[in-house]
Amino acid sequence: MTVPALRPFRAEIPQSALDDLRGRLQRALWPDDLPAEYGVTNERVRALAEHWLEKFDWRAFEARLNAYPQFVTEIDGETIHFLHVRSSRADATPLVLTHGWPGSIAEYLDVIGPLTEPESAAAPAFHLVIPSLPGFGFSGPTRSAGWGTHRTAAAWAELMSRLGYESYGAAGNDAGSMISPEIGRLAPEKVVGVHVTQLFSFPSGDPAEMADLSEADQAALAHLQWFYENMFSFNTLHSQQPHTLAFALADSPLALLAWNAQLFGEHLDADFVLANVALYWLTGTGGSSIRFYFEDAQTPPHPSAPTTVPTALAMFAGDFQSIRRFAERDHANIVSWNRYDARSGTGGPRDAAGHYSAHEAPEILVADIRGFFAGLSSPWPLLTAAHEALRSAAAGVTDGGLPTPCAEWTVTQVLQHAGGDQQGYAAFITGEPGPDFNPFEPSGELEDVPAFLEPKLAAAAAAFATVSPDAQAVPTPLPQGALPAALAVGAAALDAAVHAWDIATATGQKSPLTTELAEALLPTAKELAEPLRGFAYAPALKGPAADDAASELLRYLGRNPNWTA
Q1: Cβ contacts of residue 406 below 8 Å, gap of 6+?
Q2: Is the pLDDT of residue 201 over 70?
Q3: Which of 114, 279, 281, 317 has its CB 3.0 to 4.6 Å from that of 341, i.e. a possible disulfide?
Q4: In angstroms, how far apart are the furthest CA atoms of the chain?
Q5: Given CA atoms 505, 507, 510, 515 in this order, what sign does their dihedral have?
Q6: Pair 353, 360: CB distance under 8 Å
């Protein structure tokens, strides 16, 4: 069987199509003006339509797309369009990035450079494959039925193999957050990791699942219920009668703009919104794109055993709030779970700030992707475990002003110190700049803990991932200077794990310092702690001979395992 060719592609919309669009917008008929509770307002759509007519430059957006290598190929009877941007780095990880509705490949343009060509040689690099979903943009309109999550995931697996990638990662947003785990389910021997911005796992109906939900999880359920009651009509219509709506979307750019704008928050810049909407209009895919929902609703269920590929979630406040208890029922190998708040303060509950994180908060998303994949490829599981302990403790902080076992520092100050230390280790290895504050004089102010902490953990993980286990002189910020690789990693892990215990203890959380982690860190502590007494650690405390490993480690470092505020 002959494999269809990969053909170079350029976006070249005829001027006649742009002229026709302009005329339709100028001649648009407007409905009566109604308040926001009736749907997207005239004011909102009029502002976007005027921007489309007077300021949005399709040719500039087209040129931006054409600055990257683009291709089309036939998969399962349909033409699939994709960007394929390779890194100059030989160690780059192939990564397929998948968008959703009403987004497009435009979602990911801001992260192409940072992911393919990071400034630091220690940061992971990626070969990016960014396809347009079947029936979306230059991958449409589709001519056949059945293009939902499962069939698209299979097509992406075929695309990655056709490109010669037999080992790769999958990442996505919105529909891409459903497709990416499915790729891992279909090709677990090839997919090294799955990174998403939503894990769409819902209550099963078992009352036991609802017992003892945290306040945060109950708030997430309440937000989901609000969305279902106030914003879910698009999903119902797409799932039941997509072609009925398709007539309006094919005939009127104003109808397409209003319909798609309901899920583009008002905080988003107009050029981003219009790049996505114009891509749908100029390719005639307003109607075929929404059939994705119908196909998923009509497709018989596929095997529902939990996915097993390592999975990461980067969840943004204002967007869909995943609940870990439900997610772990559907995904058996969640290794990273981070929350971020990238809200600008504008917009109301309909705004869904953070949903388009690759555009809204590219630095945060890039750092999370880097940290996740660096952790998967790192030869240092001890550091990964210590970082996860610190993340876990930081995620449970509700009051940063609480006192801690760490001298006279508050929780916020310990977090700043811990993050600064990890960035310091990375800086010594890579030669990149260290923290822009003094970790030994931390302040009491920290607005967004994950946004502060995650890039620093990602930098440390990426730096140590470049260190050979046989290295005998790894630079460190410690008074001892360069150390053998295992000892240098142990020092960074010890710092993160002990500060995780400080934070968890101060905030009433369960200790993340497990027996296994403590046992692994104790030899490092005994080799490094003495020169650091009075500087990083207090004199050792005596304890019972039958101390557990965590207590023994804490006492050796001068911390009382039974400390209370």
Answers
A1: 413, 414, 417, 499, 502
A2: yes
A3: 317
A4: 85
A5: negative
A6: yes
Distances (CA, A) of 92 to 95, 294, 555: 9, 37, 43
β-pair partners for 171: 97, 195
Instruction: Tell me the one-letter amino acid at 4.
Output: P
d(CA 191, CA 181): 9
| Beta carbons within 10 angstroms of residue 203's beta carbon | 15
Question: In this structure, what token pair is assigned to residue 565?
Answer: 């505020």
Tokens of residue 472, six digits: 């005998």
Residue 474 in contact with residue 482, Cβ under 8 Å? yes
Distance CA 61, CA 59 (A): 5
Torsion of CA 342, 346, 352, 354, to 10 degrees: -20
- Annotate 92-133 with three-state secondary structure: CEEEEEECCCCCCHHHHHHHHHHHHCCCCCCCCCEEEEEECC
**What band does 348 get if pLDDT is binned at 50, 70 and 90?**
low
Residue 544's pLDDT band, with cuts at 50, 70 and 90, is: confident
| Digit-coded pLDDT (tens) for 295-335 | 999 988 776 789 999 999 999 988 999 999 999 999 999 98
